[in-house]
Amino acid sequence: MKRGMTAVIPVIILLLVCCISGAGWGEEVQKTFEGIKEIEINTVSGDCIIKTHRSDEVIVDLFYDVEPKGAFKYKIKESGKTLLIKERWGPGSSQGEVTWTLTVPAETEIEFSSASGDLTASGLTKAIETSTASGDIDIEDFKGEMEIAAASGDIDVRNAHGEIEISTASGDIKIRKSGGEIELNTASGEIDAVDISDEIDLNTASGDIEVSDSKGVFELNCASGSITAKGITIEGMSGFSTASGEVEIILAETSEYDLELSSASGDVCLDYNGNPVKGFFEFTARKRRGRISCPFDFDDEEEFDENGHTYVRKSFSRKGDTPTIYLSTASGKAQLKK
User: Fold this and answer.
1) pLDDT, tens digit, for every residue of 3-39?
2) C-alpha to C-alpha distance for 183 and 207, rounded to whole angstroms
3) On the CB side of 131, how many CA atoms lie within 13 Å of its CA?
4) Of the candidates 166, 336, 171, 156, which has an alpha carbon nearest to the alpha carbon of residue 261?
């Protein structure tokens, strides 16, 4: 009995070793290149991680674990100073994990496109252009030109400076501690911005916009979403408008520049947050549908007709006639707070 068990044990161990060695450990590939200035990478569902180092080399690490075997293929090719990377998936049903890790000089230009793969990048200082259908984008510590487009993926950017252009159809956009020429657009997603600066152009169709602790020249627009900006410093003529949402602006300091807040059917509120109130202020609201609220007496009041409706216009000046501040609504409330 003991001899029989002794003979069986090695067989069991051998089977376990075989199972473990073939149970989804995947394949790894590493290639190194020199003299590369630009990388174009196209994935189907593979994720991509880009990080930088001080070396002039480009190191490509590929890990893949795909079933059935042979369903996944790849191509890595040099073309002058450009490195081309592309995934290929065979016909039929297949599944698995694919991850590309690129370690590059900081000034390398990146062009990334994917159907459903995610991109994570940090430390780049030249240019990055990305497009995804449903993948997420995460970029930090960036300087240069950034152009990102996504259909339904979310986008998260931190500590980026330069020309930043981001658009998504139904994904959300988050941006933190960034500055430069910032243009963000989303159809049905949300925009959340904290500690951003310089030229700020944010637009949504049906999503909300939230900005806090930021300074610059602002142009914020929504179709059916709301705009909330708290603790902001105005550094140039700025506008905040929405069609059917609300607009709430809380200033970090008195504005020296012209402002315009408007909503078709929502409330608009400009809060000076304890800072001195100065300039020429004009309020407009539709008669019997809108309302005007102000802690100061008005110098002038009038009614006028526009597009078949009667509107009320009220205005006053305080500590001079500049800057010019406009607050308007059709059926909401136009409000000024000290």
Assistant:
1) 444 444 444 444 444 443 344 578 999 999 999 999 9
2) 16
3) 4
4) 336
| Torsion on CA atoms 321, 325, 331, 333, rounded to nearest 10 | -90
Q: Which residues contact 293 (CB under 8 A, 6 or more apart)?
A: 333, 334, 335, 336
Q: SS3 for 159? A: strand
The CA-based angle 121-125-127, given to 5 degrees, is: 75
pLDDT in tens, 128-173: 999 999 999 999 999 999 999 999 999 999 999 999 999 999 999 9
Contacts of 20 (CB under 8 A, 6+ apart): none
Tokens of 27: 């394949």
What are 223's two structure tokens? 């179709």
Domains and CATH numbers, the chain: 26-145 (2.160.20.120), 208-338 (no CATH)
Give the HSE-up count for residue 219: Cα atoms under 13 Å, Cβ half-sphere.
Answer: 10
